[in-house]
Amino acid sequence: xxxxxxxxxxxxxxxxxxxxxxxxxxxxxxxxxxxxxxxxxxxxxxxxxxxxxxxxxxxxxxxxxxxxxxxxxxxxxxxxxxxxxxxxxxxxxxxxxxxxxxxxxxxxxxxxxxxxxxxxxxxxxxxxxxxxxxxxxxxxxxxxxxxxxxxxxxxxxxxxxxxxxxxxxxxxxxxxxxxxxx
Length: 182
Known about the structure:
The protein is of the alpha+beta class. Helix content is 31%, strand content 13%. The protein has a domain at 72-178: Ribosomal Protein S8, Chain: A, domain 1 (2-Layer Sandwich), CATH 3.30.1370.110. Strands 1-4-5-3-2 form a five-stranded mixed sheet, with helices on both faces.
């Protein structure tokens, strides 16, 4: 049996130079000048950010009016309990609706006020207000849901309101029974 020995190496540097003998450097390339960068787009305007901060610091004026449960229901003293039950069951025809999703507190308040005034002027009896469930509202919970509950209680032309049936938006919407125009 014969044992072969590897050829002797002078040193590591010599072995490296031998291995790299056929290697050629890459041709130099000229980098293209960088074009103008696109302007950054702000996700929130300063005014929108300030409004959100201002809204987060405002405490509701009437905490008793803000229910903590999912379903909302309210009726004035002159409205019978069976009328409220019919409203909760969706037994009144909804004649108009407004969707407040995506609006800030102040914009939603103005839109709701205008909608209710127009509904009363047109002699509508039952409308639906979609406020959303507040699933993406964070730890503070649903903002619009609570303030809609608060605002509707203060409107004289609102006789009663109740959370909608699941098919009509569930706890993300309310049926509003309007009083006759005076």
